[in-house]
Specification:
Strand order of the largest sheet: 2-3-4-5-6-7-8-9-10-11-12-13
Radius of gyration: 20 Å
Largest sheet: 12 strands, antiparallel, barrel
Shape: globular
Number of strands: 13
Strand content: over 45%
Oligomer: single chain
Distance between the termini: 15 Å
Number of helices: 2
Helix content: under 10%
Structural class: mainly beta
Order of helices and strands: EHEEEEEEEEEHEEE
Amino acid sequence: MTSAEIFRTRRSAKPNRQQRGNPHTRCFRRKQVGRLTARVATAAAAAILALALATSAQAQDAITTGADTADEASKDGPTDRHKEMWVGADAGDNYWLVYSGTTLAPFTDIHQNGLRLRIVGGYGQYSYQIASEARATQNFDAQVNFADALIGYLWRLDPLILKLFIGGSAIDHQITPFDRNNTVTGLDWGLKGVAEFWFNIGTNGFASVDLAWSQAHNTRSARARLGYKPFPNFSAGPEFGINMDRQGDYKISEEDPNFRAEAIDYGRVGLFARYEWYGGELSGSAGLIGDFRAQRSAYGTLNWIVQF
């Protein structure tokens, strides 16, 4: 699976830098190392617990490398496996998110061309502050829930593997206290589209691109990875991503250059590593996220996937 699939709602990774209606309003991240440690620990514990529940005895003979990379390896024939399940966590200095999902290949092996059914869900929390010349700093805490139900198809076009999905998505942001200037709040739903590309580069390299768009809060995400395998079961490389929604659109369109945001402000850049074994895959990434001109902070992700 893609980390984009996850928090296509990842506005928490980039809190408001300025707000509508007050030209003196700016937003910035809360730097709370203690709370970050607790949040990351909570997210990791939740991911491990969810995995323990997901990986039943039936999954012990899983023979693939995971949702994000399940189809990149060359397969000589069908494995008679029709399901893949994953859990993961994504955390930064002012947010954390846990998620899980399942993909079903009802008529063919999970590695072969055919129909795909996918469901994804997740929950997270984030916080931000607003500083104004007219009043004291105000803190906001938020919870976000999301769910996707998608139908798609996988094509093996060696060396390219392509997956396309379409379906519905719902995203709910609950902010306390209510922030009347925030354009991304409350429940929204609508159509969603996902495109995932995996390209094998020789025997030791690969490139992947994952794209997603949802009508819910006009949420979009993109992630690209370039990987190299120094060992048969291990790969690593750089990753780049961007996540935006309706609030980001507003800030980018701001006419005042003191408050206007740029698209790069919603990006992330880092390194990933993945280890695959008979039965699944563990992958993680870490890097910088946020405003690359002024405010940079760290992020980390962890994913565990099985197929059976």
